[in-house]
Amino acid sequence: MSIAVESPGLSETQRQIVELARDFARTKIAPLAAEWDRTKRFPRDVIAELGKLGFLGMCTPEEWDGMGVDGVTYLLALEEIAAADAAISVSMSIQNAIPTTMLVKHGTPVQKQRWLKPLARGELLVGFALSEPEAGSDPASMQAQAVRDGSGGGWVLNGLKAWATNGGTADLMMIMVRTDAPGSRRGAKGISTFIVPTDTPGYRAGKPEDKMGLRASNTATVALEDLHLAPEQLLGDEGMGFVYAMEGLDAGRLGIAIQAVGIARRALELSIAYCAERRQFDRPLHDFQAVQFKLADMATRIEAARALAHSAAARKDRGEYVAPYASMAKLFASETAMWVTTQAVQLFGGYGYMRDFPVEKLFRDAKVTELYEGTSEVQRLVIARGLSGR
Ligand SMILES: Cc1cc2nc3c(=O)[nH]c(=O)nc-3n(C[C@H](O)[C@H](O)[C@H](O)COP(=O)(O)OP(=O)(O)OC[C@H]3O[C@@H](n4cnc5c(N)ncnc54)[C@H](O)[C@@H]3O)c2cc1C
């Protein structure tokens, strides 16, 4: 029995992609992940290599230089990267999901040519900025503002965005700001999305946040200071930015769900190996039924979490309404990752609490999956709304 996804049941394409991702993860990511975590180094070169292999544009249609694979195949590859280092997988997830979904669905042919193609090839790194210091779970209450610049119909942006992944390392950011007038707020309908190259004057990323986990991933506050944009940097229709962000988050949450599966799977693999080796009371830990039951419960929850994520991805590929299912997958998988990594630390005993052993990093990395792209409470709100048909 295998905890990782194995060949039977996979198509030939999926098998090749999983093997490529697993090989890359095991040789180029896993050996260095602990050091990147310790030194907070964002390995841009490794992300670029992922791009060259096609892993940053997996669901982007081939006509825009992507791989054009289905959602489940993308999740299979992402799980392999997440099992090696969650900090790398979050960049892969964002690049494949939120900004790309927005551009594929709402970009003009010119915007796709200019931005989508290099994103799919991994030549540009992207992030998205929805949250603000005072607007996290309720992003529709954001305050950052764009106003018409009065000359050629362009825009001037001002405000502060919080915790943007890749905020200090991306080449391009998709930024959600208000375009309704301060005197006549329209809630979610007053928000628009802009495509912002990070070398635009007025874009200023703060110092990288000092985080509990995912320490190699860049997370930064972004200040928008009289940032001038041309009319063609507006994505889609004015006032539709919030809707576009929520569409993107459906895809994003599936990525975070499988990131959580990858973290949990690694914790289980390490736990199985440790329990076979570590001896107490004159026998290996795995001889104790209490330990066997713990491992069995860990494996069962991981299998269920992966199945939920794959099922939601298949629904999305069929064009079904997927928001509550993406939230179920993220909710269940992130709580699974937190629970499984807690059990892993317990099984490792005192060693599990030490930096020299890998499960404490997995425990720290797991926590954020319950927080970002909507907390577990927000996922429950989305599911409950789906149940009541709202
Ligand atoms: C490492 C990291 C990377 C991130 N990357 C990005 C990014 O790339 N782009 C981006 O835009 N954002 C990003 N975020 C922000 C993230 O999405 C927010 O932190 C998250 O949405 C929660 O918002 P908040 O932190 O303001 O918490 P709050 O909204 O203040 O919530 C605090 C607590 O209250 C609970 N709560 C709030 N409202 C309700 C309610 N109605 N019912 C019940 N409970 C509720 C929450 O669940 C939470 O437990 C990132 C965050 C982190 C930590």
Features of this protein?
alpha+beta; Butyryl-Coa Dehydrogenase, subunit A, domain 1; Butyryl-CoA Dehydrogenase, subunit A, domain 2; Butyryl-CoA Dehydrogenase, subunit A, domain 3; 10 strands; 14% strand; binds flavin-adenine dinucleotide
Shape: globular
Please report the distance between the alpha carbons of the first and last residues.
42 Å
Question: What is bound: which ligands?
Answer: flavin-adenine dinucleotide
Largest sheet: 4 strands, mixed
Total helix count?
11
**What is the CATH level 1 assignment of the largest domain?**
Mainly Alpha
The main sheet orders its strands as 1-4-5-8
Q: What's the number of structural domains?
A: 3
Mean of residue pLDDT values: 96
The CATH superfamily label of the largest domain reads Butyryl-CoA Dehydrogenase, subunit A, domain 3
Which class of secondary structure composition applies to the elements? Answer: alpha+beta
Runs with pLDDT <50, length 5+?
none
